[in-house]
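Hey, quick one: can you model this chain's 3D structure?
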Amino acid sequence: MDWGMRNRLAQLIQPDGRALFLPIDHGYFQGPTHKLEKPGETIKPILSYADAIMLTRGILRSSVDPTNTKPIILRVSGGTSMARKEELDQEGITTSVKEAIRLNASAVSMSVFVGSPHEHETLLNLSSLVNECEEYGIPAMAVTAVGAELEKRDARYLALACRIAAELGARVVKTYYCKEGFEKVVKGCPVPVVMAGGPKVDTELEVFEFVYDGIQKGSIGVNLGRNIWQSDYPVAMIRAIRSIIHENATPKEAQQIFEDVKSGKGRGAR
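Sure thing. Here's the predicted structure for all 270 residues.
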């Protein structure tokens, strides 16, 4: 692995081997998602607590201050929308690697849809992206998407999707957490795995529990968006999650941090 690749991965994955990525790329197929209508305002109070931010080039240019020093994970796939849910697996490459370099991205990301009718195209797209990324020393993160078929989130499917993404050259894989067998998903993937959040859950503790459990089972961290910025207390939420990832806090300890920051009693609460 050359210096550029190692340097970019070091920007994303912290010295403790863990990572907290903050995705705000949802609009590329969902449009103006709740509480992400004005992305720049959404991320302003929470960006400092993330290790990297994941977004599209349009939102990067329009909503992120160029003086920002947080690493950028640039979403480079798209071309589908919620208006045609049955076609969500037909994503293509929308942004070139040269554009990623122009925007000073530390990594790029794209979705693959293993098991879907368009599996073949998305996997070849990943392969082509990796070929180009490796030429320039840029890590490619594969996102194991399931489209509208949420029932696919079991360990057997996720292990298959993650391993294929790694085999094709992804340097990091983003996948869903599953309560049963997640350790097998991580063990079968030879590159770092970060957990996706999926739809916002009912309680903060549920989030803390799955993040903690996933870390214990081998994940290096999260790529978590809606469960943070759709919270009524996003700063408290991201700080509590960060405590699990980088300070080895338990779910109960994270819940206490959340309550303290929420009430203004936490360290440097704001």
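One thing worth noting: The first strand starts at residue 19 and ends at 23.
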